[in-house]
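Spend some time on this chain, tokens included, and walk me through the fold:

. . .
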Amino acid sequence: MIADLDAIGLLLALAVGTFGYWRVSVSRHQQRLRQLDVRVHVNGIRGKSTVTRLVAGVLREGGFYTVAKTTGSAARVIGPRGEETPIARRGAATINEQVDVVAAHVHDDVEALVIECMAVRPLYQQYSQEFMVQSDVTVITNVREDHQEEMGETLEEIADSMSVTIPRNGVLITAEDRPHLRERLRRNAEARGSRLVYADPEQVADEDMRGFDYLQFKSNVAVGLTLARLLGIGRDTALRGMWKSVPDVGVVRLRTYPVGDAQLLWVPMFAANDRESVVLTFETLRPQFPPGAPVIGILNNRRDRGRRAELFATMVPTDLADHLDHVVTFGAYEETVQQRIVDGGYPADRVHLLGETVQPTLEKILTTIEGLAVDGRAVLVGMVNIHTDQAELLIHHFEQLRGSHGSDELDESRDPARMPLGHVRLRGVAARGRGGGGPGA
């Protein structure tokens, strides 16, 4: 009996201790959030990581001491000078990571936080907004068909699912260009006491886009300019901050590599994995492809993304037939994907299996691609997902070819030329002081 009482007492003590620890952790998290002047939560189907980076660049250049966090192709914390730090994970990613980032990086000097929503299920999205971020401004980049299992089958249902991250009595910024979906977001915002501001890409000039050395969309830039206008940051300052921001790992940068005797233009479009984004990207990039070079599309299918595999297999003979001269399959579902493509009317002899059914070596992959080139040229476009054994072989090979001539995004983020103007000036003042050229000299 005494032993039972001791056990119960121990359990009660543990429960009280756990509850106390939780209360203290919650209190500290809330205090860190309250000290911030600006809190931005970035949601949407496409472009979240890119917009998070652009918005953080606007804030940094506009004088806010800013911390940002992206999920994207590689999770990163972006510090006040634009420097990036990878997020080390033990096990699978969870939304609790957002609290850890705030605890580790939002100290007394930080004025602004920009954080990418990493939740998919509406309940978790709502928890992220109302507890973890409590944003003043939420961005919903766009509404697209993806994650239907969690967010709903229709675009309207998906819009409603993401609307749970709209702040109470705050601002929603969206670049969604379809009026009926934008109106739905507006009604959802007003129900929370917030107002919607449309980030119209028409406000972005062609000249504004020339500061980016990678594929960028006017709709993303429009979000950054819209936030800048709301916060009183000048347009030129905002553009400069966005140009300085380092792109996400999954960004599309066109680079040419030798593959045997052929020259291959590599287009890593893995981050675009819904129909509208892929078609738009092809239409945007097509003028930059070498005339007459065949375009080879890689359908890179993960086993846990069967619905995407089905979607792209349907898209090849319909939406992409005019863009793709050949299709190469990596990863899973190869025979099923091939059958659907061919049944849709795409020629069978232009579909090449190089995934799990073949388990090819890198040499086999490269030899096959070289054989599809015409006059020593070809364009290779990676799509659907980024992680399969075959895709990682190919990506690693291209990284090795770049060698010392290329730098990764972590190196880029520490380039002094990308620092916010205020930090550059402070560094200059410090340097003059060390050199004896200060006011007291």
Notes: Residues 31-250 form a domain with the UDP-N-acetylmuramoyl-L-alanine:D-glutamate ligase fold (CATH 3.40.1190.10). The two ends are 82 Å apart (CA to CA). Residues 268 and 382 are 5 Å apart (CA to CA). The first strand starts at residue 38 and ends at 43.
